[in-house]
């Protein structure tokens, strides 16, 4: 079984060819960073146009890289939500066109399901496993029970950690993306020099919050600047170290709680998978690895290129859905919002 995958829900246009045995034959990602840079954020209209323009060349490139033709494929999978609706529609239309032209089966995939199923592609994890998705736009714990069965155990009630890192970098005059630059500064700092809050730890459950950390950082920075007429290099490193440690601590504690819920289901081969750009952070990763080691839980993290937005995960999720025969026509409606959680079923076409 070989699938073509398409992804265009945010600011990356991507196409990939993946085989059911987990071989990624090609994975092409065309970013749009330069297009959006002058506006300080992703502009939906510009993104949609760029996707519409780039999708077919990405498909051609992916097929060429895989050394295959459309007629060699067994199906097409496309992200049909959630995301910026213009981009999602570009992808769905492109995929519909390809399917109509070739007669191949077409499978709509939830972008988050793509992220959540990636550890099956990369590490062959068995269901059920616990997934922590931590990126620039997401932070949630998912109990992954099957290709179409997810329970959300908790998530951020405000910012995602990646977003927090990015804002922190902005506040401290460090380059974007903020995660890597804050991490590099933190390596030179003392995490105990400043006291940062540990939001929501006093409350039960797996929900997280990061916006208070950003406010605490802003206050600490301003106090320093007011007191010294500027920010010392060492102070900046200390602030980064304290900020990063707070995020790592909160993530570790909430993960411990999510693991407890997960382990209660008595999984045969307990595993935690992390995905998303923030999983690249060594302090965070180490904290999670330690936690897993202590609980006898396998820890996996897909390689970064398969953690950040890509189409290989969409092709793979398409294969998984197709194999189980759970792909439905309704999945092909472009949806700006599409919660994964079984307890929050998607409302078709209502934009909710
Ligand atoms: P999403 O895919 O969820 O919509 P996204 O595309 O912004 O969001 P990713 O591409 O998965 O997310 O990850 C990018 C984020 O990861 C950025 O916010 C970036 O700062 C963060 N990040 C990258 N490297 C690190 C690191 N070493 N430490 C902390 N954060 C990091
Ligand atoms: Fe994503």
TrEMBL record:
Its EC number is 2.3.1.234. InterPro entries: ATPase_NBD (IPR043129), Gcp-like_dom (IPR000905), KAE1/TsaD (IPR017861), TsaD (IPR022450). SUPFAM superfamilies: Actin-like ATPase domain. It is an enzyme of class 2 (transferase). Its cofactor is Fe(2+). Substrate binds at residues 133-137, 166, 179, 183, 281. It comes from the Bacteria. Binds 1 Fe(2+) ion per subunit. It is found in: Cytoplasm. Fe cation binds at residues 111, 115, 309. It catalyses: L-threonylcarbamoyladenylate + adenosine(37) in tRNA = N(6)-L-threonylcarbamoyladenosine(37) in tRNA + AMP + H(+). One of its GO terms (molecular function) is iron ion binding. GO terms for cellular component: cytoplasm. Keywords: Acyltransferase, Cytoplasm, Iron, Metal-binding, Transferase, tRNA processing. One of its GO terms (biological process) is tRNA threonylcarbamoyladenosine modification. Residues 23-316 form the Gcp-like domain. CDD domains: ASKHA_NBD_TsaD_bac. Required for the formation of a threonylcarbamoyl group on adenosine at position 37 (t(6)A37) in tRNAs that read codons beginning with adenine. Is involved in the transfer of the threonylcarbamoyl moiety of threonylcarbamoyl-AMP (TC-AMP) to the N6 group of A37, together with TsaE and TsaB. TsaD likely plays a direct catalytic role in this reaction. Belongs to the KAE1 / TsaD family. This is tRNA N6-adenosine threonylcarbamoyltransferase. It comes from Rhodobacter viridis.
